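Retry 2 of 3 after timeout on previous attempt. Resubmitting structure tokens to design endpoint.
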């Protein structure tokens, strides 16, 4: 079964997600931003979700994790929980 090592940041609105993405792209530490802003419990761990198996996350996020490029920052991606920034560290088959 396919799986991936992923970290993410979840916020309530797209504007904040875009601002945080710019900060990370400018060099601010992903984990620091996650701890300060993410509304997901994973925020306390710097956004680390650990190993995710295909089908484990909500539809739009699951699709992104298993189709978008590895080692890049993606988002904002909308789900029923809010707006996500995703970093797919790597995937395994």
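Retry 2 succeeded. Sequence:
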């Amino acid at each position: 079964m396919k799986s991936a090592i992923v970290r993410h940041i979840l916020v309530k609105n797209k504007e904040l997600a875009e601002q945080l993405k710019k900060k990370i792209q400018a060099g601010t530490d992903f984990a620091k931003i996650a701890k300060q802003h993410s509304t997901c419990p994973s925020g306390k761990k710097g956004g680390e979700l650990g190993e995710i198996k295909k089908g484990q996350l909500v539809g739009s996020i699951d699709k992104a994790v298993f189709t978008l490029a590895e080692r890049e920052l993606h988002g904002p991606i909308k789900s029923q929980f809010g707006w996500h920034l995703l970093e797919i560290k790597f995937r395994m088959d």
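Attempt log closed. The chain has a mean pLDDT of 97.
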